[in-house]
Amino acid sequence: MMSGLILAGGRNRGMNGVHKAFLVLDHVTFIERQISEMRKCCSDITIVTNDPMPFLKAVDRAVRVITDYFPGGGALSGMHAGLTLAKQTNVWVADCGMPFISAKAAKLLLDSKKEGLDAVIPWIEERAHPLHGVYDRSCAAVIGSMVEQGKASFPALLEQLSWVKLPESVFEEKGIDSRFVKAIKTKEDYEALLAWHESLKMNYMNGM
């Protein structure tokens, strides 16, 4: 089992102030979809956000909702807070704007995390996707130091960690669609997602 960590900070400027976690796909919010998926392989789930109240109202009490220890430190600040309170050694980290996070993908990442590794990260379309990775809880110390020094970026973090990439072919072999790393960042992204999903439903109804 792992701990689950959902990063839900930021001002969501690209969504005109609407929080990505509460975007809806097929009548279900992103955050509901993510919690449901994480519960397949996580013993505990934490949401880190700079605005807890909407989440406290939306999720059940079994999900922990916390804020950053270092306000304004971005996604890494949220990771630091969540990793610090994680109950398990291994922590599945995901961004709240990802509607298709995958427990099967997370389990593959965990299976590849050998002794001495700090993280295993998907390598899709020739680049790392650190916001759907499995990290060791001990990474909190490294991240906390970076945030304090104002070096809070994922490229800088990956230079500090001992990590491996899990290539796209490994997920394909297991029948896992690489769309699990897709993140909605703007209103246009969301509109494209809705259009794609609607086309899938239409094709299904037409027997295609």
UniProtKB/TrEMBL annotation:
PANTHER family: MOLYBDENUM COFACTOR GUANYLYLTRANSFERASE. One of its GO terms (biological process) is Mo-molybdopterin cofactor biosynthetic process. Pfam families: NTP_transf_3. One of its GO terms (molecular function) is nucleotidyltransferase activity. The lineage of its organism: Bacteria, Bacillati, Bacillota, Bacilli, Bacillales. This is Molybdenum cofactor guanylyltransferase. Residues 4-152 form the MobA-like NTP transferase domain. Keywords: Cytoplasm, GTP-binding, Magnesium, Metal-binding, Molybdenum cofactor biosynthesis, Nucleotide-binding, Nucleotidyltransferase, Transferase. InterPro entries: MobA-like_NTP_Trfase, Molybde_CF_guanTrfase, Nucleotide-diphossugar_trans.
